[in-house]
Structures are given as C-alpha cells and as structure tokens.
User: Fold this.
Amino acid sequence: MTEKKHMLVISEDFSKFPAGRIKADGDFNGTRFRVEYLVSALRAAIADKTRLSVSLDGLKSCGSSFLEEAFGGLVRVEKFSKSQLDSSLRIICTETRLQRYKDAIERHIEKAKPE
Amino acid sequence: MEALLAAVLGAFLGYCTSIFFMLKNQDSILINEHINTIFRIEETAIKYWSVENSTNLAAQAARLDGDMTASSFFLEDAERLLGKKFNEFKKLDGELFDLVTGESFQTASHTANYSTCTEIITKCNQIRSLLSNSRWSLFWTR
Assistant:
C-alpha cells in the first residue's frame, strides 16, 4: 500500500474553517476531526507500516485551540506516544503562510502529556 | 568628452541609487503595514480576552481570527525582509498565535483571562520592536 493512499487534506475532507474544541463549539471542531478522521486514518497507516500525511493546504483559517485539540489530543486523549507520531504522522503544507499552523501542531504534540 | 562621460556615469549612478532606495522603501512599507497589523491584533485580542459572556463574542473571535490570518501573509516576505532576525520573529509569531487563538478561543466555554492579555501586550511589543529594528537594518547591514 502506498503512502499516498494514507492522506488527509483538512480543507477538502473536513473544513476550510475548522474551529473550536468540542461539539458545543460547532460542527467542525477539533475533537470531531480527531475522533472521526485522524485516529482511524493514523491507525490504518500504522497497520500498513507507513505514514499518514495530513495536508494543511487550502485552509482559510484555523485557531491554535482547534490544532491543540486535534493533534495535541492524539497524545493527551488517544494515548499515542510522541515517538509513534514522529514515525507515523507527517504534516505537509506548500503555502508559506500555513507554516504557522504546521509549527503549532509540532509544538502541541511536543507539549502534550497523556491525561 | 571626459566631462560628458562623467556626467553620463553620474546620472547612471544616481539612477541606480534611486532604484535601490525605492526598493528598500517598498520593503519598509511592508514592515510598517505588519506593525499596524500587530497593533490591530493587540487591540482586538485584549477586548476578546478581557470580556466574558459578551453578546458579540463570536463576532470578536471572527475579527480576531481574520486579523491573525491576514497577518500570516507577511510570512511570505518575512525571511527576505528580516534576514538574521527571521528565526526570532518566527518564534515570537508562533507564541503570539498560541496566545491569541489558543486555550478557549472560539469555544462555547470561553472565559476572560487577564494574564493572557498581559502576555499578548508583551508579545506584540516584542514583535513591533523587532520589526522596527529590522526596518532600520534594511538600509544598512543585516
């Protein structure tokens, strides 16, 4: 199975304007993205011994709260280890302005501790 | 003949110098615009992070989100404009992003946080100071 098959494009698969943390914050919140999209895709990639690529291209806006809930939550809530994420998750963006989101995701994963 | 040659050379050097300063002035304008954007983010962020249960909280969050997103376009020119100070700028920019749009931002449980306000003011001042210094450096050394 190719790595290309294991790919999520947030702006196409989820929303161009993801926001908030939980259901009460809106339909396109961080918990929903993590639970319904990210975790299953990540587990499938790990099972196939490859990486999941998450593309940020096409995002119109995104808050740090959403990114923390979605990606920091992989460590905090879903109990993935940081080394597991290092080897199985790749964040990609080709637009320079979106580099800010990529950096934030890396910070959130680094700072997160299992609850 | 020599006088004519000197005049042509002088005019050419003058032309080159004016082009140089025109380009540097354009870069300076880009930095000034970002300084103004940081002022706008600071003003909106302080309102958002110091008010609880306001009726227009969602509108404030949308404006703040818009200002932060607009500010990200500066990143496309930042490395060229800021030279050696780029990495320091990038770090401060990331810290401001987390402060302004982190924690309870865009959530139904948003609460006022005065220490966040203080940190935002400090971070905005640090960024403006770095940008002001870089504006001067445009014309001299990096």
Summary: Chain B has one domain: 26-137. The first helix of chain B runs from residue 2 to 50. Chain B touches chain A at residues 65-66, 68-69, 72-73, 75-76, 90, 93-94, 97-98, 100-109 (CB under 8 Å). The CA atoms of residues 41 and 119 of chain B lie 13 Å apart.
